User: Fold this.
Amino acid sequence: MQQYKHKNRYKNKYHTSIICIDSYNGKILNGRLYNEFLDGVVYFKSTMEFILSMSDILTKMDYPMPFLETRMFNSPIKLDLHPKKYKSIKNGILETFSVRIVFCQNSSWQGKVSWLKNGQEKKFRSVLELLIMFDSALQ
Assistant:
C-alpha cells in the first residue's frame, strides 16, 4: 500500500531545492539550502554538510525512494532550521542553483541543475557529477 502514498510524486514542487553559495574557499561549499518542504532555511558550512542535509531532506520527504538501503556509521545530521518560513530567497553571493533530484539509484542522485544567474541547465547522474558542476561554475 505504501507505494500509493504520494500520488503526484513526480510533479511535486518539494523536489526542487534552491542552493545559495555564499563562499567557496579551498573548494569548501558554504551557503544556504531552501526547500518548500522545510519550515526554514538550512545553513551548511562544508560540502559534506550540504550532501548530508540534502540526503536528510530527501529521506524525510520519502522521495526519491532509495534504490539501496542507506547505511550510517553515526547518528543522522540534525537540520539547523530557522524558526520562521522564508518569504523570499536571497541569492547566493557567488552563485544560486536550482537542483531537482528525480531519481536515487546506485547509491547516488540523478536530476538536473540550473544556474539561476545565466539560465544554463544540465542533467547530472551522480552527486559527484553535481559537485563537479558546482565547482566549474564557482571557479
The longest strand covers residues 95-105.
